[in-house]
Design brief:
The structure holds two protein chains of two kinds. Chain A has a four-stranded antiparallel sheet. In chain A, helix 2 packs antiparallel against helix 8 and helix 3 packs antiparallel against helix 8. Chain A is α+β, with helices and mostly antiparallel strands. By secondary structure, chain B is an alpha/beta fold. Helices cover 32% and strands 26% of the residues of chain B. Chain B has seven helices and ten strands. Chain B has a six-stranded mixed sheet with strand order 6-7-8-3-9-10, with helices on both faces. A four-stranded antiparallel sheet of chain B has the order 2-1-4-5, with helices on one face. In chain B, strand 7, helix 6 and strand 8 form a beta-alpha-beta unit. The longest helix of chain B is centred in the last third of the chain and has 18 residues. Chain B is globular, with a radius of gyration of 17 Å. The two termini of chain B are 34 Å apart. The chains are: A alpha+beta, B alpha/beta. The complex binds adenosine-5'-triphosphate and magnesium ion (MG).
């Protein structure tokens, strides 16, 4: 018996780190899915209100007419924001986006002037947009109304689908983590086998032997949860900066509840899988673990 | 009518994996009795002892040890069986990272002792019984082989067992130190009425300290009662 309990506990530490990181990853994904569900409405609003509707104007119209239409649109109830893009500006944008100049090839500017606007989220559905389109095309100066119809149709299902995918991913990862923890426990129990053997021989109950492992796993679960929460707060911060509609304060209670759930789930995953493994290996002869 | 035996096996078959090691074992050990278990290597001495302390499940036959029915023992109840036993063996050594006193304290805590004062009392009591009253602060590596074995015996006595199961406790010791340990075990049996079952290879010990002998041979346990060794 050359090993001591203390020495070997130190040696098996790195694998606890892996387990902690694993649980943190699972929690982070779960948190992300939860956040998506909580913010589903805000996200939908964000995406809907970023679908651009282009009212493409005929050539050779007076700019007063165009501006008058822009003014009209800006006062309509469904409009969120509007901008007038002249033929020249359209050309500039095209050059910027595609890097070549249709002007030199064709000897004229093939692009149309347009009035571009974003609609309020409530109106971004196939029916309302169709009505808006019909209404606007009645104007003589309007050539056509264009927007990504495919986007509008898929948007509603997407948020739900993404959160389900993330949820499935995290369940899968959780299985991997349980295996990881199991391995860690096997290692830790093997390196503490003399200590455990002593306890078994003198009549310590399994629960008593499992206690230090369980306590440690509670700490590990807590640490994992804190790491995952830090990551999630980072995500919230970044998203809030780029998406003003995404307001975590608006769902503050739900968000806090989510974070508390993450702590609870972290401790549960860590504790339950650790306890299960300890009990499993106590049933075996410890010398036979390797 | 005598008291019921401390340990008793009836028509027991002992297996390792699926190989029958000892068949139709019958034995009874009464209070305060000292019993040797001898036999060639690999004949099943350790297997028999392991059956008695619930490390090998009793598959066939009946067994009672310190009031526990071995066939009813599960992982839930085996700790309570062991708390009424003292187990000593060659390769069940002290924890090397703590001193003698802490080794014994660890055992007490493991079996649910809480009261600091009573623990202290108990530790001093068993160290006194094995003649190591002043060595509690020593680390295991600071002790001689015989002293370490005494601490092992002290550990086995912590929960005031009615039965001590010893597997070659003198296996690693020189003859003089062996004598010491044997005297101690006999003294414990005599003074506290503790029964002892001790597996050994050491026929010199048997000659010097004669007592009842159980012999394992050819898959059987033979009770030589009081066979003498000439
Ligand atoms: N864990 C085990 N799994 C399978 N077979 C085992 C196991 N332990 C022991 N055996 C076998 O059981 C038989 C009895 O072994 P046991 O250790 O009881 O003998 P022993 O009389 O104590 O021997 P020794 O005097 O060498 O200590 C041996 O043939 C051994 O190979
Ligand atoms: Mg043996």
């Amino acid at each position: 018996m050359t090993q001591t309990g203390r020495l070997s506990a130190k040696r098996s530490k790195p694998s606890y780190v892996m387990a902690v990181i694993g649980v943190a990853l699972v929690l982070f994904l779960l948190g992300l899915a939860g956040l998506l569900v909580i913010q589903a409405n805000n996200l939908k609003i964000h995406f809907k209100e970023s679908i651009e509707i282009q009212v493409i104007l005929r050539d050779n119209i007076r700019s007063q007419d165009a501006q008058a239409l822009e003014d009209t649109i800006s006062h309509l109830p469904f409009t969120k924001s509007v901008s007038y893009v002249t033929k020249d500006q359209a050309l500039q944008n095209y050059k910027k986006d595609f890097g070549d100049d249709p002007d030199t090839l064709l000897q004229y500017n093939p692009l149309y002037a347009s009035i571009n606007f974003f609609a309020k989220a409530d109106y971004v559905n196939a029916d309302s947009l169709k009505n808006i389109e019909n209404y606007l095309t009645q104007h003589d100066i309007v050539r056509e109304v264009y927007y990504r119809k495919d986007l509008v149709n898929t948007l509603n299902g997407n948020v739900k689908r993404v959160s389900v995918i993330i949820l499935a991913l995290s369940v899968l990862l959780a299985l991997v983590v349980i295996i990881l923890i199991d391995n860690t426990i096997r290692l830790a129990m093997f390196s503490n086998r003399f200590l455990i053997k002593t306890m078994q021989m003198v009549g310590a109950t399994r629960w008593f032997i499992a206690k230090p492992f369980d306590l440690r796993s509670i700490w590990n679960g807590l640490i994992s949860a804190l790491v995952a929460i830090a990551g999630l707060l980072g995500v919230i911060y970044a998203v809030e900066k780029n998406m003003p509609e995404f307001n975590s304060n608006q769902n503050l209670v739900m968000t806090i509840l989510l974070l508390l759930c993450m702590i609870l789930i972290g401790i549960c995953i860590s504790l339950l899988s650790t306890h299960r493994s300890v009990m499993k290996y106590l049933r075996l002869q410890l010398d036979e673990l390797y | 009518m005598a008291e019921s035996p401390i340990a008793e096996l009836r028509n027991v078959n002992i297996y390792q994996s699926n190989a029958l090691i000892l068949g139709n074992v019958n034995l009874a050990v009464s209070k305060g009795e000292f019993v040797y278990l001898v036999g060639k290597t690999g004949t099943g001495k350790s297997s028999l002892l392991r059956t008695l302390y619930g490390d090998l499940p009793l598959r066939e036959g009946e067994g009672r040890v310190v009031g526990f029915d071995l066939s009813q023992i599960t992982w839930k109840t085996v700790p309570y069986l062991r708390r009424n036993l003292g187990v000593v063996f060659q390769d069940f050594q002290l924890l090397t990272d703590r001193n003698v006193h802490e080794n014994l304290g660890f055992v007490l805590r493991s079996t649910g002792w809480k009261d600091k004062e009573r623990m202290e009392e108990k530790i001093n009591d068993v160290l006194d019984k094995v003649g190591l009253k002043t060595k509690g602060f020593k680390m295991p590596f600071e002790l001689s082989g015989g002293e370490q074995q005494r601490v092992d015996i002290a550990r086995a006595m912590l929960n005031s067992p009615k039965l001590i199961l010893a597997d070659e406790p003198t296996g690693n010791l020189d003859p003089e130190t062996s004598d010491d340990i044997m005297q101690l075990l006999f003294q414990i049996a005599r003074d506290y009425g503790t029964s002892v079952i001790m597996a050994t290879h050491d026929y010199i010990v048997l000659q010097k300290f004669p007592s009842r002998v159980l012999r394992t041979e050819q898959g059987k346990v033979v009770d030589n009662a009081t066979v003498s060794f000439a």
